[in-house]
Amino acid sequence: MIKHKHQIIIVGAGIAGLSAALEAAQAGNDVAVVSKVTPLHSHSVAAQGGTAAALGNMEPDSWEWHFYDTVKGSDFLGDQDAQALFCKEAIETAYFLEHIGVPFSRGENGRILQRHFGGHYSEFGKGPYIKRSCLAADRIGQAILYTLWGQCLRLQVKFYKEFLVTHILLQDEGCSGVIAWDIVRGEMHIFQGKLTLLATGGCARLFKISTNSSINTGDGMGMVLAAGLPLEDMEFIQFHPTGLYPWGFLISEGVRGEGGYLLNQDGERFMKIYAPAKLELAPRDVVSRAIQGEIRAGRGIRGKPYVYLDITHLEDQLIREKLPQIRQMVLKFAGIDPKKQPIPVAPTAHYTMGGIPININCEVLADGKKTIVPRLFAAGECACVSIHGANRLGTNSTMECAVFGRRAGKYMAKIAKKVNFLPLPQGQIKERLGEINTLLNRTPKTSLAEVREALEEGMTKNCGILRDESSLKNQLELIHQLKTAYQEIGLKGMPKEYNLALQEVLELKHMLNLSEAIVRCALARKESRGAHYRNDFPHRDDKNWLKHTLVFIEDEKYKLDYKPVVITRFEPEERQF
Ligand SMILES: Cc1cc2nc3c(=O)[nH]c(=O)nc-3n(C[C@H](O)[C@H](O)[C@H](O)COP(=O)(O)OP(=O)(O)OC[C@H]3O[C@@H](n4cnc5c(N)ncnc54)[C@H](O)[C@@H]3O)c2cc1C
């Protein structure tokens, strides 16, 4: 076993992790970033459209309008103290990113270029769409991630890549670091830190059809759950309407923005039934539900679970100039020229609104409410502060990662000065090493791939865009069967070095626990709000459900608790489109 000691340990090298690393290192700390992939392969690199900040470069804007849109977008489940702070700090953070060298696209006056995105309006929702999304062509994630990475290297942040963190080391005095498996060399490592930050991204890979990278298995959330700590609002998973079937790769809203139609088996523009005024440009949750409704009614193409996104009526030149990446992707993966044939699409799991409950300093909350876990922090998509509530607005996520990643880094830098290293809990370390050895010595009776596939298929089918009591109960039963099957997965005879099956087995354990948490939260919430839609309870119910869900495991049993939503300014109102 190999030990490493750094003042600050950051798990995750996406926009959240690297923003924190940069701030903490800038303040003079010795910072280590541990990532299961090479940093530049973190999912942040895939972000396309832009990052939100009310800069007002193109037309007048205000952080308060952004605040209102974020509250309404969240279907009134976000905490308004955090949302207000986010919208204010987004402006300063956009300039910070500009100053460290993010290559934003520029307008004629040399300022950062901004564009329209769904849900962002002017004048407290009463005015027209507003250009609030700062862009770097259609590669905002890459632009931000690469810049942050370069800055971290300059400040000598130490990177440990291809290390799978499996557990957080937790004792009464707080977190003393993490345990990780060196994927390449097949060894156990201990990372001891005064303070630890989880920035491990979302869990939309629990679903078979997903826009997320295969690495987005929600490990950080899984580790928190395994440690007996709560997760917040896990029933809220965002489904993007148009993923390329059957893979689920993201086909941007821009395609419909340019005039694309959605068609069913009968060649009918079915959105006219579901959203007569906004048609294909209705909000994401509405369009996703419409597509799913068509598929369930047997009107998917040739009875299969997809519909068509048709742009054959658009000019070839427009497709090539305005949608070049999409055209390339569709050509490359589906072998379809979108000028000649419609694109097969289906809703796809996209984003995790819930996560590890934190306060505005990114301290993890032990009871999900006020009490903090000393020395443990979280930021980015794995955390829930809560900005997005029941539904995230496009482009608010990368900005949340930058705003709260930076806040975490600065706050940790302050605390690190005042505390010493905790002794390591040797018992826990031994136990964890034992678990890995058991896996490596067990003769397999069940196939790893089959369990993972069954889980993902079940999550998409039973806990997807449309849910009800019976589908959720079916999924719960399936998860219990798969948990039993999991005990029979073995890796006997396999080498320790570069054993990707071992990585998958370790991820799968968290995936099973997380899925059960999501299903139990969804089963309990008897209303429809934002991305959580119950066929059997189709309306929002503020009287009973204007509250955050907390889920945790105690004595091997799942327990639920609730806490109020923070409302400082905007009272809940009906969302109309
Ligand atoms: C296709 C796509 C397009 C998007 N477009 C936009 C957009 O235009 N605008 C926008 O605002 N948002 C967009 N989003 C959402 C946004 O990109 C993400 O929410 C955000 O980038 C998440 O960043 P993060 O830092 O929290 O985590 P990630 O970037 O997901 O990084 C997670 C990190 O954690 C590490 N990690 C995870 N588990 C472990 C473990 N067990 N051990 C060690 N390391 C671990 C990974 O290696 C990785 O480095 C998009 C998302 C997708 C999928």
Automatic annotation (TrEMBL):
Q: Which residues form the FAD-dependent oxidoreductase 2 FAD-binding domain?
A: 8-397
Location within or outside the cell: Membrane
Q: Which domain of life is it from?
A: Bacteria
Recite the UniProt keywords alphabetically.
Electron transport, FAD, Flavoprotein, Membrane, Oxidoreductase, Transport, Tricarboxylic acid cycle
Instruction: Write one Gene Ontology MF term.
Output: electron transfer activity
Chief subcellular location equals membrane
Which GO terms of the cellular component aspect does the record hold? plasma membrane
Top EC class of this enzyme: oxidoreductase
Membrane-protein topology = Peripheral membrane protein
Residues the record lists as binding substrate: 240, 252, 350, 392
Please list the residue ranges annotated as the Fumarate reductase/succinate dehydrogenase flavoprotein-like C-terminal domain.
452-576
Query: EC number(s) on record?
Result: 1.3.5.1
One GO biological process this protein is involved in is: tricarboxylic acid cycle
Write out the pathway annotation from the protein's UniProt entry: Carbohydrate metabolism; tricarboxylic acid cycle; fumarate from succinate (bacterial route): step 1/1
Which catalytic residues are annotated? 284
Q: What is this protein called?
A: Succinate dehydrogenase flavoprotein subunit
How is the cofactor bound, as the UniProt entry phrases it? Flavinylated by SdhE, about 5% flavinylation occurs in the absence of SdhE.
**Reactions catalysed:** a quinone + succinate = fumarate + a quinol
Chain positions with Tele-8alpha-FAD histidine modification: 43
Residues recorded as binding FAD, renumbered to this chain, are 12-17, 35-50, 219, 381
Q: Which family does it belong to?
A: Belongs to the FAD-dependent oxidoreductase 2 family. FRD/SDH subfamily.
- Name the cofactor(s) required for activity, per the record: FAD
Gene3D superfamilies xref list = FAD/NAD(P)-binding domain, Fumarate reductase/succinate dehydrogenase flavoprotein-like, C-terminal domain, succinate dehydrogenase protein domain, Succinate dehydrogenase/fumarate reductase flavoprotein, catalytic domain
